[in-house]
Design a protein that fits this description.
Layout: E1 2-7, E2 12-19, H1 21-37, H2 51-84, E3 94-99, E4 106-113, E5 127-135, H3 138-151, E6 154-157, E7 167-175, E8 181-193, H4 201-207, E9 215-223, E10 226-241, H5 247-253, H6 260-294, H7 301-316, H8 324-352, H9 358-371, H10 376-384, H11 386-406, E11 409-417, H12 418-425
Helix pairs in contact: 1-2, 3-6, 5-6, 7-8
Length: 426
Amino acid sequence: MKIKLKNINSYTKELTCTVPWEDLKDSFQDEFNKMKANHTPKGGRKGKVFGRDLELFKKNYTAAIEANFAEKSLNVYYSKAMQEENLNPINQAQVSNLEFSEGKDLIFTLSFQMLPEVKLPNYQKKFKINMTKYIPSDEDIDLSLNELRQQHSNIKTVDGGAVSGNFIMGDFQELDDGDLPIIGKRMEKQYIKLGIGAFTDSTEKDLLGVKPDEKRKVTVNYGEEKKARYEIHVHKVEEQVLPDLNDDFAITVSPDLKSLDELKNKVKDNIQLSIDDDYEKRKRQEFINYFVSKTKLEAPDSMIDRYLDKLVEEQMTKDKNLDKDKFREEAKPGADFNVKWFIIKDALVEKAEISINNDDLNNEIDNIVKESNEDEKKIREFFSDNNNKNSLASNLLNDRLFTHINEFSIIKDKEMSTSELRKQTS
């Protein structure tokens, strides 16, 4: 067998094989005899094909036998060629040429895709990334305490007219341009809060002072030039009563706390943990951005297509009317980026000689059991499922990889207060 291998691009190869007739004739004869043994000539018996009947059999069936034999032989010799050349395709090969007839060589040409060669940047000589490090402010503590007060608040019925911040519960009947009810456009027992979201400005003003059993007509502006007209039949007006910030409130939030100061310290610690966690996530993303931008690599089309197929499948469960072509086109840049990172990550893991064994997994499960309040039996049953165990192994591998990368990074931090961040994003 003669093999000719040609590179079409960094991940696509074209393989041309020529198999001599001498290597094929015995197998072809076996195929011919098998077909002949199952043939029943006109007026004769099955498998008894001689003389004139044999000539007719050859005339009528040789082409089909050749085509069938060529297809079978292609698969056999394609596998042999892959083994000889030590190739591992990542997609199904496409046949661009197949030639064979009795007495002649088998020739076929196939194209297929391989994982491209990865030329990693020389990151072990140190590389730089820029990060923003957020510094918590007193405003964060105040906002968190206010959230806790919201969670532990009580609701009080208001007998007088509604004011900003009150809750209104009522039936919403949508109206047409002539203020007539639109059939089928009625929403009952809906809660809204004055001064929040769409119920601000003129919409809020039209509802101020409303009392139970009153009806008001309002225009609600949903933004992006979307408006709707409603008649609201108010059933309840309620006020949210927030608890005072004192030692009793701290104990209500958590019985292990003894004072408001302890609650503030706990809130501050939780904020710092959240900020630190966010910093680590953003740092990992910057590592990924660095390697994808600095590594010379083309993502194979077949891998991008499989990635997009999965995304489309997932999105279809959420949106049955999804425009698949538009969605694929919009998602393609992200798919290209992620496929590149998957390939680069494998190369980094191999270069750094990182691996996860059963002892590592068992130790991690033991740690999860110790740190969790959940029943140990449930945790161990959860990780007895191979999918969950494999997911844990993947997370451990990622942790070790990013720890390895971090050793060679030079991080330049720019500090910014969380208050300043809120101003920028508001």
